[in-house]
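Archive transcription. Copying these from loose printouts into the bound notebook so they stop getting lost. Printout 1 of 2:
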Amino acid sequence: MKHNTLIFLLGFFMLQFACSPDFEPVDYGHDACAHCRMTIMDKRYAAELITPKGKAYKFDDAICMLQYMSANQVSPDSRLLIADHSDATHPFIDARKAIYLHNPSFKTPMNGNYAAFASEKAAVPLKDNLEQKLLHWEDLTRINP
């Protein structure tokens, strides 16, 4: 009985792993934003939405992703990823857990002017220089872009 349960659990987790929607790297200079159709050029602000079925939608900034989500039915189980502004390689991080700063100096492609950071620690030095407050994903969803 224990072996059957163990085999079932292993199979279940392997199936979950195999079906996990994966990140699709952005081809900068070639991929178009799913919302505004502009070519995604700036690695510092790119974003990606991955549906539970694994379809990836790429955006040139957080505001385009929010506008797309407002205009389309997006599953709450979708993965939302955004480029980490503070890391020189700009890896994608969980957009719902990221910390955001808003300032015109960011000059994002659609003038949303939000930059994402993996942690408060990474955002605080810039926050202090720009005299801005730290924002969370919920704060961005309350704006009407």
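Printout 2 of 2:
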Amino acid sequence: MSQIAQIICSQANAEHCDLFIYESQKDHFRLVGTTHQHEKIGVLKINSNTLMNDSHAIKLEYNGKLTGAIALRNPKNLPAIDNLLEELAFSLWWLDRFTELENTAERYHNMSQLTDAFYSYDDQDELKKEMVKVVAKILRADMVLFLEKISENYVFTAGFGIDRNQLLIESIPQSHPFISKIEKSDSGILNIKTQIDFASIPVKSLIAVPLRLQDRILGVLIAINKISEEGYRTRYSFDEFDLSTLHEVARRISLAYTRLEYQNNLKKEIEKLKSYTKRYEDLIKQQQLYLKKMDLVHNISNAMRASYDPNNVYKILLLGLTSGRGLGFNRALLLLRDRKTETLFGKIWLGPSSEEDITKIWREAERRAMSYGDFSQYLREEALMLDISNGLTKKIEGKMFHYKDHPVFERVVLRRKLIHITPPLAKSMGEAVKDLTNLLETEEFAVVPLIGKWDTIGVLILDNKFTGNPISEIDTEVLKIIADSAGLTIENATNYEELRKKTESLEQQKNMIDYLRKFSESILQNLTTAVIVIDRQGKVLECNKRVEQLLGLPKERVIGSAYTDFGEAFQDVFGVAMKVFERGETITLSRYRIETANGERFFDTKYSPLWDIAGSSMNGVIVTLEDVTDQYLLEQERKDKEKLALLGEMSARVAHELRNPITVIGGFLNRLKKNISDPQARERYLNILSNEVDNLQNIVSEILEFSRSARNIDESKFQINELIEEVAFFMQEKAARNKINLEFMLSPLQEVVADRNRIKRVLINLVQNAIEATPQGGRIILKSQQDQDRVLVSVFNTGEPISEENLRKIFVPFYTTKTYGTGLGLPICKKIIEDEHGGRIWAESKPEGTEFKFEIPIKREGE
């Protein structure tokens, strides 16, 4: 350019010449050729207005476009350079155009390389590295950095000419003004002579664009400082063309990113698809395995339901669980629940007891199983032959587990949860499951509840101690299903067994009842006592053969007939049964006389209520008539003989009692005849005779009193305690003379209905006897008490106890231990109490004395 300036200067004949090129971007002229200031070439820049106002400046234009200018100092021949200036204006325009086209071609070439490069990378990190490198090359940038948007921040992920250490902050927030400005711009930003606060680098110019992927911003791409090249160049910093280029590059990068992301997503989808395929294949295998096991569960359940014996059901279940053709567990332990003791007790444990010959045992078991076409049939027949009394079952005989507060059994039994104990879980539980791990000698096992209709009935424990196979989720799911089915089947079998036993028991009871009914019927029919049952309407419900004989009618005629149909004689006796319906009490009649067709007969009859089972309703009256005619006649004969014997004894005793006073009277009458003239002797003998006559009268009176039949008594209502006190008052003086204390222990009594004078006579007799039997200083205790419907009175004395032999005789007439008396006092008392008042009198000897007691009813029968 300086040569061109020299030519122009020479042809224009000027002092010197300067050649400027117009830089439209900055609207100034840059010195590119000169004849006198070579040091300023490329450096000197003059504002367009300043230069155009210089009178020495000549504009160079081509097609109306300013391309440059020359400054001539004192030109003397300007016309000589007119053509030259036109060609120079064209050349500058062409040069600018050529340079622009060359740069554009280079950029498009680089852009094509960029596209090729983008397609050659499958990794985003590699793509980022190549991206900043190519961008720097295309834009001739000194530095390029890519800040990737991660969440709400921008992070340096790739750079050219700059590394992470030159950044002042690693993560730039989205709200940063510079970043925010880039984000919001559609085509990017162009800054000249600016600074960025997040990097310690000088910035002369920069361009930045957001990297968008549809509506999403991937990050920002920033190119910093244009590389300074040697020689003249039309642009020294980034311009709009660079920005548009960067924008285009960003768009292509976005497409590459899209492709890469699509490829990555496609890879992920393919991987997912492969994963899904594998999972589906595994799932299909699991489903096939599950279906196979469900088929086994179906076969085991069918085999269990075919048996009604609980023990057989237990064996079928455990065989199905441990058979190689079945679910294949090594061992299965069955524990049954006892609700009363809240324990689980060992029932059956099936499986090898040791590893010895285990392969041989399993092979033999499998051979037997495979010989059956139907697995259910194998289980049923194998269970019948299976002996469970030895082997593992021996180890759990009598073994009990309390399930309350047990870390495993409480959840299984009470919460009905299946628990799978794994080795890590067993170690974490430690001592809490030591009883199970010690028993099973393995740390992996499943504990399964057997659930009946309402509650847990037992527990299954399964393990694979010898094979070490883990218990899978399918295993636990299958165990839940078979446990539910087994629980119901065992409960049904148990209920069936109980029902069968109850049925047998009921059958035995029925047979026993039939036997007892026949036996009772036989006894009833063969009784010598007539038995007849009458209902409330007076109809006969049942009778025996004796009744047929008594009535002279067959049983068919008797049953269903009214008792009034049997004639007047039996109407009275059966009519009493109607009173039993009113009273609800048993009535007994002794020696009841009935005029039968066979003559006069005497019966002891008893009328007993026939209550229902609950004892609340009377269904009838059982009348029994025992023919005691023979006994009655024998008794009458015996009584007649006893009367004759008693009469003889009484005659002898009366003669004995009368002979003494008569002898005395006879003796004193002879003395009176001899001494009739002696008034004193006569008076004394007459008194003696008079006393002996009184004595004779007393003896005769007592004999008459005793021999007289029971007379009608004069009943009245009185308080017997008052009568006791009254008698004691009369006898107090006599007792005092003998220095005897009368004591009272009287209890509150109801008034009694009796003959007061007759009871008073009894009391006087007992108290008088007690005074006579008690030594001086002794005591007599009068007591009274009430016992339900009777009153008990006793007279105790501290005299010498009466011997057992005398106790048996003291109520016999004319028996006395005294030197005086007729021996009729106590017999008369007995007659008054027992014959006249329906009571009882007796005497008891005690270590410190004798006690006489009598009791009488408070109200007489019929009142």
